[in-house]
Amino acid sequence: MTNFLGYECSLCGQKYGPNEVEYVCPKHGDMGNLDVVLDYAAITRAASPGSIAASPDLSVWRYAPLLPVADPGFGGTPLHSAGWTPLYRADRLAAALGLKTLFVKDDGRNPTASFKDRASAIVVARARELGAAVIAAASTGNAGAALAGMGAAVGQPVVIFAPETAPQAKIAQLLMFGARVLLVKGNYDQAFDLTLQASPEFGWYCRNTGYNPFTVEGKKTAAFEMCEQLSQISNSKLQTPNLQSAIRNPQWTAPDRVFVSVGDGNIISGIHKGFKDLLALGWIDKMPKLMGVQAAGSAACANAWAAHTETITPVAADTLADSISVDLPRDGVRAVRAVRETGGEYVVVTDDEILAAMRDLARGAAVFAEPAGSTAYAGLMRAVHNGAVGADETIVVINTGNGLKDVKSAMKAAGEATVIEPTLEAVKAVLN
Ligand SMILES: *Cc1c(COP(=O)(O)O)cnc(C)c1O
Ligand SMILES: [Zn+2]
Fold first, then answer.
1. In this structure, is the dihedral angle defined by the CA atoms of residues 179, 184, 190 and 195, taken in order, positive or negative?
2. Is the distance from the beta carbon of residue 142 to the nearest atom of ligand 1 less than 6 Å?
3. DSSP labels for 19-85?
4. Helix (H) or strand (E) holding 123
5. What is the pLDDT of residues 295-310, one digit of tens each?
6. Ligand 1 centre distance from Cα of residue 47 (Å)
7. In what side-by-side order are the strands of the sheet with 257-261?
8. Cβ of 337 below 6 Å from ligand 1
């Protein structure tokens, strides 16, 4: 892509050309995450909020001018339907929390039912540009399911390393999409390190989160969508046809505050990158405050933020929210910065709060989230309780994964159904 200038190390600032490095800054082992550097002047010549609003493409690829990979084609396949997820109004939840404007961005509505499809779509496109034969990834489940699904969409072989304890539905997805599945007798962190060892050994292209610089470039599209979708909503309030007014109006609308659950910290880093891109392009006029939400049993980023440090100390992760159960966040430094630099906060919630948030989100907004998805909403509830949120703010909560991925946790949150004899008497007995 003509807009792809190269990389900049997030730790030491060293710049690299597009072909000088592949994954991380060589100076810091595995931890030197690289930011992709884009040519904003070239993007401005190629695209505008109006040109994108006019795009018929309802996927991450509508933002191709802002991505470091070219649209790989495969229109009409799941690779071309990652992203452009609904931004739902959640008026009843807002009222219950004393807020005016609350939206839920439902990324459970992606092709493989999690936010990870955004990253995997971009990484598959990158792998094809590089001519990679096989793509490998470590995953708690969703990143793997997404890579396996996007691989299946284009006939790209995929190898997934996941912890043996991953929820059944996620393992079923991996197997069903035809990935080579290696369940590791260990945790996600061990699967991660094993993938880093195996990939060079077998010549695989490695998608690992917080290692491959292109995952953030896919995840940032959620920030683009929030701003474009909010501008459509505010335009339609003025009774003008969405598209026409969006084409006339060069500005998109940034929310005031965004709640994101954090495991490795790559989603929040991606959302941050997306807003930074739009701010640099002048397509939005303010940086939203990013609220990172972690489970109390897996809070390495929140700990570092609270201690005013960028040194991430690993924890022994223990939470039912498996997608954010991480000892050492692989994108922790950027995840801490995303919150600090935007004036947001880290919020820590218990597993009980996560289960309660699952119920509230489903019953109050009809969004069925897996635990790591409802964690963001649990964070909003906690933040409102702490007085950290203004009542007039426009708030977006991201649901990162569909509840059907972890039915065991859903049943814990929802409770048991009543079983009855097939008689009217039995119905009466139960209802009276
Ligand atoms: C991966 C994932 C997260 C966390 O993303 P990180 O980049 O690891 O912080 C949150 N929710 C769900 C459902 C996920 O799959
Ligand atoms: Zn470096």
1. negative
2. yes
3. TT-SSB-GGGTT--BEEEEE-HHHHHHH--HHHHHT----SGGGGGGGSSS-----TTSGGGSSS--
4. helix 116-130
5. 999 999 999 999 999 9
6. 30
7. 87-89, 101-106, 394-399, 257-261, 289-295, 346-349
8. no
Does the Cβ of 80 fall within 6 Å of ligand 1? Answer: no
CATH code of the region 78-112+216-414: 3.40.50.1100
* 243 pLDDT above the threshold of 60: no
Q: Which ligand is nearest to the CA of 16?
A: 2
Which atom, in ligand 1's list, is nearest to the CA of 209? 7
Decide if 405 contacts 372 (C-beta within 8 A): no
Ligand nearest to the CA of 265: 1
Spatial distance between the Cα atoms of 119 and 214, rounded to a whole number of angstroms: 7
Q: Is the pLDDT of residue 354 over 70?
A: yes
273 pLDDT more than 50: yes
Pocket flag, ligand 1, residue 210 (CB < 6 Å): no
End-to-end CA distance of the chain: 67
- For residue 215, the ligand 1 atom closest to its alpha carbon is 7
Q: Are 301 and 329 in contact (CB under 8 A)?
A: yes
Atom of ligand 1 nearest to the CA of 116: 15
Site to substitute for ligand 1 among 215, 370, 400, 402, most atoms within 8 A of C-beta: 400
Q: Which residue's alpha carbon is nearest to atom 2 within ligand 1?
A: 323
Ligand in closest contact with the CA of 24: 2
The domains of the chain are located at 78-112+216-414
| pTM of the model as a whole | 0.96
The amino acid at residue 352 is D
Q: For residues 36 and 126, give the distance between their C-alpha atoms in angstroms, rounded to a whole number.
A: 13
Q: 115 by DSSP, 3-state: which?
A: coil
